[in-house]
């Protein structure tokens, strides 16, 4: 791959930024696409069982929003499939077949998702209630499995397995071993749980804002409670799984762990660093918790942690991105846990939401916090992998498209995403406001609300 | 059949499905564009919206299917094509975004200016996307995409006579298929006047596409003689003949208002063209690169094809249910306010 050395730094940077932008954008919609159908189905099911107008109207209104978000999610995902080739032909031309299996399976999942979404949304008033509920189930299953498959492909980039190369050519592949590499279990579980957290907290946040503005009727309380319960149940599990992911990184990508924690020198009994920035070869202004890292990463206060000094400077991931990103994820995780615990305690004591407006304020921003955790988690994973696109197999700079002018593509794509963001936010707000929610929804309010 | 051939056939089936279904959805957008002012065009737009609403996302997945199978089955071809043709393909990707997002946005918008803005985006990207897809296909068909990463000319690979002809043909085919499908949808919706109007459009659009195809053949003869020879005298000839006959039959059937049968013949005309190209070029995928050298290892092909075969048991009945559900009754086309 000699010609690749000529790639201008600006084009490589642009390609990476473009990939990061489109992935970072898609993942928010993808989380809604995985989590929202499940939560909507829950509401529809409660509505069907109890006949409660509030649940039934919630389900319809969520479904209508879901229709828009799903379309945007699907098109933003499509550009990703293009970009895999447009930006990283050096990756796909050689290793495309190695990660082909999870993507082929993902294609099946996408079909199932899109087909049943069409039926679920457009046949709302044509199917019997039970048939309609059942038509939603494949959407949930396909959403979760598609998340599994894509992340399995990413896990392979973290932990390449299942192939043999000779002289830059693939000679043998075991696609199942590539898909079920050792990074797959922690990463996929962590991602799928993240999707339910993001969807749950974001949806609950909408109703928290409305309640802060004085709408405390049953409809708004349920709109907050149902998604928040889902998210709150997932949160503690997610933190446990995060710990699992961290252990895995400690074992399989010690360079990434060192960057996450700003460890420059190999040693035993290494402290945990809170905050701090790397200046030269040192992490400054950090608060240290003695033995913390050795303990957390290996369950042993005396365990050895490999520092960055073992890796040549050119091959180290940027500490000042990976370290703060990891801290943001963890802080957000615990902040969200606080909300979950608060809800649980209040519910146990009085079967009701906490009274404090601070609780509502917390829930109102919880969605943003979850998205922040999600994005910074991906920054840890992806930037922490640098300079490799396939960890210790292929460098990012060797994989990029050597064609000139990627910078312009990046500018164009950015402009489109800005417009897309503005339009999506605008349309979602209009959707909430154009048909106001009555104080006490009645049958005609429910059936009169058309899903599509 | 050896695995690489099976893979290629499956890939081409996916491409055909995308052109027939996804292409028609783009065509719907083209008719939306040509429907005229807000008042006059409302009936057209409502029909388009109603017809493609429930199914376009499923139809769209065929594109992803093709992309993914390409990098799984023939990774080096995928990399060569995307890296050399990255300009038109980036525009295709942006067109896909504009079309899908704007369509979804318009459907839930109620004010006129919003519907106009999103509608214009939807309609405009519906023209742009099939054009650039066609142009990219033209670049591959005329041998302008050599194997190797970004090895071809970044501009001339898609700005050339074959590409332009193929781009125009892409737009024309999309519009024609849509007009044919919509004619029947309008009649089923009980709006015979609307059906008549779409029939008229389908007729003249079919004539235009016919002329365009003939011109494209002449362009091909000058620009890409090898493929031309295959199409007009080689293995691909029967398929070309099929395409021409089906195209002519479609016009007759349209004239006689046989709206269901014309769906079949119009589709056949397109199928003949696509498979003619495929057969004409086989086994050479890119200049100097044949299928057996480009194909992925058998283990990969077997695993992916096996999964797809199993998946087909899920997909075929589901797809059938989807289409059946929304082809049954359409008595409520224009219940929505503009
Ligand atoms: C709501 C989202 C969310 C929350 C609350 C957390 N994470 Fe996370 N984390 C993700 C969302 C996420 C993610 C975005 O989904 C990532 C990116 C890649 C992946 O598989 O999951 C991720 C990656 C990720 C990685 C890198 C894995 C790798 O590079 O292979 C580690 C070590 C952790 N997380 C650890 C944690 C810990 C210790 C948490 C405890 C508070 C935590 N995460 C909370
Ligand atoms: C959807 C959530 C994801 C997010 C937010 C994300 C984030 C990022 C970021 C920030 C980068 C840039 C890294 C850098 O240049 O320093 C990147 C690069 C990349 N990611 Fe991801 N990623 C995600 C998932 C995936 C998945 C599932 C795959 C593959 C199957 C993938 C493949 C890539 C590739 C090919 C690059 C470019 C090469 C590189 O910079 O290493 N990503 N991603
Ligand atoms: C962690 C990462 C990802 C997750 C969890 C995820 C999940 C999803 C989900 C649930 C959808 C359905 C649409 C929606 O709900 O909005 C979707 C759509 C899509 N995603 Fe992603 N995705 C991820 C990353 C990627 C990457 C890296 C690619 C491509 C390389 C990709 C390609 C697509 C495509 C093509 C679609 C459209 C499918 C359709 O038309 O239905 N996704 N994704």
General description of the model:
- The complex is a heterodimer of chains A (452) and B (338).
- With 452 residues, chain A is mostly helical.
- Chain A is 70% helix and 7% strand.
- Chain A has helices at 9-50, 53-87, 89-95, 100-122, 129-158, 175-179, 184-212, 218-252, 254-261, 292-298, 319-350, 357-383, 396-399, 406-434, 443-447, and strands spanning 163-166, 169-173, 267-268, 272-274, 277-279, 282-284, 287-289, 304-305, 388-390, 394-395.
- In chain A, helix 1 runs antiparallel to helix 2 and helix 11 (319-350) runs antiparallel to helix 12 (357-383).
- With 338 residues, chain B is mostly helical.
- Chain B has one domain.
- Chain B has 13 helices and 2 strands.
- Chain B is globular, with a radius of gyration of 20 Å.
- At the A-B interface, helix 2, helix 3, helix 4, strand 2 and helix 14 of A face helix 3, helix 4, helix 5 and helix 13 of B.
- One protoporphyrin IX containing FE sits between chains A (23, 26-27, 29-30, 33-34, 70, 73-74, 77-78, 80-81, 84, 110, 113-114, 143, 146-147, 150-151, 191) and B (57, 60-61, 64).
- Chain A: Keywords: Cell membrane, Electron transport, Heme, Iron, Membrane, Metal-binding, Transmembrane, Transmembrane helix, Transport.
- Chain A: It is a multi-pass membrane protein.
Question: How do the strands and helices of this protein lay out in sequence?
Answer:
The complex is a heterodimer of chains A (452) and B (338).
Chain A: H1 9-50, H2 53-87, H3 89-95, H4 100-122, H5 129-158, E1 163-166, E2 169-173, H6 175-179, H7 184-212, H8 218-252, H9 254-261, E3 267-268, E4 272-274, E5 277-279, E6 282-284, E7 287-289, H10 292-298, E8 304-305, H11 319-350, H12 357-383, E9 388-390, E10 394-395, H13 396-399, H14 406-434, H15 443-447
Antiparallel strand pairs in A: 1-2, 3-8, 4-7, 5-6, 9-10
Chain B: H1 3-33, H2 42-52, H3 56-73, H4 75-84, H5 86-108, H6 112-141, H7 161-188, H8 192-223, H9 225-233, H10 237-255, H11 259-281, E1 284-286, E2 289-290, H12 291-294, H13 298-328
Antiparallel strand pairs in B: 1-2
Helix pairs in contact in B: 1-2, 1-3, 1-6, 1-7, 1-11, 1-13, 3-4, 5-6, 6-7, 7-8, 7-11, 8-9, 8-10, 9-11, 10-11
Subcellular location (chain B): Cell membrane
Pfam family, one (chain B): Cyt_bd_oxida_II
Keywords (chain B): Cell membrane, Membrane, Transmembrane, Transmembrane helix
